[in-house]
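Fold this sequence, please.
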Amino acid sequence: MDKEQARKRIEELRAKTEYYAGKYYDDDNPEISDFEYDMLMVELRNLERDFPELVSKDSLTQKVGGHVKEGFSKVEHEVPLQSLQDVFDVEELRAFDTRVRKEVEKEDIEYTVEAKIDGLSVALEYINRRVCKRCNSWKWANWRRYNRES
């Protein structure tokens, strides 16, 4: 694929992923499965990796999370919240394990694996053993954290 073909496909994928994220987050009416959406994102990430000059800060690959829901306001975090990347096969799982071992400079690592429940995440901040901040977030589009006004 040449650069012009990649540019056109990237534009198409960005439009599709924005549309489907909107249907999922804003309308609560998803039109495709999570797997189908993930495959669009994988293709987009791969193209942006192969053509880094075509990466744009407004691409969903450069953001994590979802759109603002009514009744929520933006929350700034002292330490950024992170998202795990999707893993679809054994090779990607091994690559994840290798990155973790390298980052923590340790070979003896144990993992806990739990079923994933898609949609809403919660971040709690404690000061002196008391919850001082409650934040909700949505997957995909921006991963901005929002604090429910109380």
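Residues 1-62 form a domain with the Helix Hairpins fold (CATH 1.10.287.610). Residues 137-150 have pLDDT under 50 and may be disordered.
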